[in-house]
Specification:
The chain is of the alpha/beta class. It contains nine helices and four strands. It has a single domain, classed as Uracil-DNA Glycosylase, subunit E (3-Layer(aba) Sandwich). α4 (71-83) crosses α9 (188-219). It is globular and about 55 Å long.
C-alpha cells in the first residue's frame, strides 16, 4: 500500500540522478539467480507531475531500455493523446515511468507471453519505487495493470477501479494494461471505464498546465 507524503524534503536533481545510476547498476536478482541478466528500465526526471507504474518491462524494453517502447507502449501513447496530451513526447516529458519489477522477467515456456514477475524480484525492487515516490512526490499516480493497481490500492477488480480516481495528494488513476493480449477491453462497459479514466487524467493534466502557466506569469 502507499505511504504518507511530505515526510522527506524533495531532493536535488543530482540526488535523483544518483539514485537512477544506482538502480541501473543493480544486479541483485542476478546474484540471487532470480534472473539471468539485469536490465533495469525506467525513465523520467525531477518535477514530473505524473508517475506511471507498470508491471515489468517486456522484450522490447529489454533492448531499448526505455519503458513502454513496444506495442503496448504505442497503445499507451494513443491513450494519452485521447486524454489530452499534445503528443507522446509531452506525455513522457511530464511523466516518470517505471514498474514494480525493473528488469524483463523473461518469456514463458510456450513463448506466448512474458513471465509473471516473481514476488522475490518485486520485493527486491520495492525500495527503488518507494524512494522515487518520496523524492518526486508526484501529483498523480497512474498504476497500469492489476498488479500495479493492487500495489497501491489493495485487492480489487479492474471493474471497480478503472474509471475512478482515488485520493487527493496524490490522486491515483488506475488503468488497465494496454497489452494486446488483454481481453478486458473487449467488453463495451470496460472500454467506457477506460474512457472515463482518460478523461480524469486529461482534467488533471489541464489543471497542472493552468497552475504551471500561472507560476510562469508570476515569475515573468
Amino acid at each position: 500500500m502507499y505511504f504518507r507524503q511530505g515526510m522527506i524534503t524533495r531532493p536535488s536533481r543530482a540526488a535523483l540522478h544518483a539514485h537512477q545510476r544506482a538502480c541501473r547498476a543493480c544486479h541483485v536478482c542476478v546474484d540471487q539467480q532470480i534472473l539471468p541478466e539485469a536490465n533495469p528500465t525506467f525513465e523520467g526526471s525531477s518535477g514530473a507531475p505524473f508517475f506511471l507504474v507498470g508491471q515489468a518491462p517486456g522484450p522490447a524494453e529489454r533492448v531499448t531500455r526505455r519503458p513502454f517502447s513496444g506495442r503496448a507502449g504505442k497503445e499507451l501513447d494513443r491513450w494519452m493523446l485521447r486524454a489530452g496530451f499534445e503528443d507522446a513526447a509531452e506525455f513522457r516529458r511530464m511523466t516518470y515511468i517505471t514498474s514494480l519489477m525493473r528488469c524483463f522477467p523473461g518469456r514463458n515456456a510456450t513463448n506466448s507471453g512474458d513471465l509473471r514477475p516473481p514476488a522475490a524480484a518485486i520485493a527486491n525492487c520495492a525500495h527503488w519505487l518507494d524512494a522515487e515516490l518520496r523524492m518526486l512526490e508526484p501529483r498523480v499516480i497512474i498504476p497500469v495493470g492489476q498488479m500495479a493497481i493492487t500495489r497501491f490500492l489493495g485487492a480489487g477488480s479492474l471493474e471497480d477501479r478503472v474509471g475512478r480516481s482515488f485520493g487527493k495528494k496524490p490522486v491515483m488513476v488506475p488503468l488497465p494494461h494496454p497489452s494486446g493480449q488483454s481481453r478486458w477491453l473487449n467488453e463495451t462497459e470496460n472500454r467506457e471505464r477506460l474512457s472515463r479514466a482518460l478523461r480524469v487524467i486529461g482534467r488533471l493534466r489541464a489543471e497542472h498546465a493552468k497552475i504551471a502557466g500561472q507560476l510562469r506569469a508570476t515569475k515573468g
